[in-house]
UniProtKB/TrEMBL annotation:
Name the UniProt record assigns to this protein: C2 domain-containing protein
Organism annotation: Rotaria socialis
InterPro entries cross-referenced by the UniProt entry: C2_dom, C2_domain_sf, Ingression_C2_domain
Database matches in SUPFAM superfamilies: C2 domain (Calcium/lipid-binding domain, CaLB) (SSF49562)
Pfam families: C2
CDD domains hit by this protein: C2
Length: 125
């Protein structure tokens, strides 16, 4: 895998699974290539269709081949997992860009806990 800079835009989410008994999700996304270096969006309150439009930058090194997205519902003193997904960076390296709605699969992968809109651009160094 090539070295370079990966720009990641987390545009929004849609039809996120409701984790709250009352009200809607207070959703945010943690994004990382390496678990030691997580970045996160702000929390968007009381919606299952949040809009973040937040931009993150990652310096990619040889061997980095997957980017992870963990979506959470922020609750007082706790957080609930709404869903997780990952994208193979080969998709980005091949075209230099990626712009898709990525599903948050359930444990068995038979249905979805919603989707997040991810845009990525890669610049080799």
């Amino acid at each position: 895998m090539p070295n370079g800079t990966l720009e990641v835009i987390i545009a929004g989410g849609r039809r996120l699974k409701d984790e709250d008994t009352f009200g809607k999700n207070d959703a945010y996304v943690e994004v990382y290539v390496d678990k030691k270096y997580k970045q996160k969006t702000t929390t968007v309150s009381n919606t299952n269709d949040p809009v973040w439009n937040e931009r993150f930058t990652f310096n990619l090194h040889h061997g980095d081949d997957t980017i992870h997205f963990d979506v959470y519902d922020d609750d007082v003193g706790d957080r609930d997992s709404i869903g997780k997904c990952k994208v193979k960076l080969k998709n980005v390296f091949d075209d230099g860009k990626f712009d898709e709605w990525v599903k948050l699969p359930t444990m068995l992968g038979l249905s979805s806990h919603g989707e997040i809109h991810v845009i990525m651009n890669f610049r080799p160094s």
